[in-house]
Amino acid sequence: MRLTRTRLCSLLVALYCLFSIYAAYHVFFGRRRRAPAATSRGSRKAAAQAKERRGREQSALESEEWNPWEVDEKNEQQRRIKTNLQILNKSTKEKIEHSVQIWGKAAIGLYLWEHIFEGTLDPTDVTAQWREGQSVVGRTHYSFITGPAVVPGYFSIDVDNVVLVLNGREKAKIFHATQWLLYTQNLMQTQKLRHLAVVLLGNEHCDNDWIMQFLRRNRGFVDLLFITYDSPWINGVDVLQWPLGVATWQPQETNESLKNYQDALLQSDLTLCPVGVNTECYRIYEACSYGSIPVVEDVMTAGHCGNTSHHHSAPLQLLKAMGAPFIFIKNWKELPAILEKEKTLSLQEKIQRRKMLLQWYQHFKTELKWKFTNILESSFFMNNKG
């Protein structure tokens, strides 16, 4: 009897040990073996969700685009531009000391931003209601906004220093420009802005008296005035000459007509630039853009434009001061002799001349950018020190 009890107890102990070993095996080894499977299932589920999400985003994108095959390339370009700007801003963040915003309310604002600053605009669609761009020059961050949606009082002001680009060529434009100046005056009085410069598409007769009251020298609030044409006010201190630049292509023009004009400039060794209301015209700069030598009628037109205390070579003082390699004539009777001289030039000489004009024009724009930014920074920031 005692032997039977001993055997029974031994059996129970053996069964208990076997159960403990089995339980321990599943606890320590069973979960490890199943874990990769669970992870694999989780990865497949996450991948499926990501794929579904991308599908939804792609469907939404395609439904919003008018022509996805045409627009995707532009969108990709804009994404690259934004990425580059983010990298640039990140790398220069510690060095940036100042910020200036340019409000483009005249077509010459596009020449300033796209040709002088060589900046880009997002979106690229010229009919967009709001377009903007960013650029860093030295230790100053410049931003640019333009479009019909840029309206006084309807966009946020997050900068202290502004360059306002205005059109003052005719009465209707002057009224619109005055409203902008009164708006900025209010911003200055409420200390939302500290400094203001104006780039003005001036009147072709240099009748710009309406803006004089706003200049700081006349107890106004405009620190600097950059003005087109040979204004007698130009002094190189607070009133500076600004180039007319290239024309903004009108909506009624077609892509074909634009291409025909560009092809004509490319194929022309010379571009004739007779005077109009003013000696300076868009064609001068458009010819330079394509390496066609401008033949400029170098005579003063009616009005108040002329020599100033700073320059004595009107008309086209700015271009002449920058050494423009143009052909200047006083009378179109000189043209036949010029054309005869053209016949004596070899193809290589004409190619070299075209290259030199393109190089000069690029230097011209680079110099303008340097002078523009340096004058702004000196006026806006240097005077604040001490």
Automatic annotation (TrEMBL):
A Gene Ontology molecular function term of the record: ribitol beta-1,4-xylosyltransferase activity
Record domain RXYLT1 C-terminal: where: 247-381
Any single Gene Ontology cellular-component annotation: Golgi apparatus
InterPro entries noted in UniProt: RXYLT1-like, RXYLT1_C, RXYLT1_N
Chain intervals for the UniProt region annotation (Disordered): 39-73
Matches recorded under Pfam families: RXYLT1_C, RXYLT1_N
Domain RXYLT1 N-terminal: 100-243
Comp. bias intervals (Basic and acidic residues): 50-59
GO terms classed as biological process: protein O-linked glycosylation via mannose
Designated name of the protein: Transmembrane protein 5
Protein source organism: Neotoma lepida (Desert woodrat)
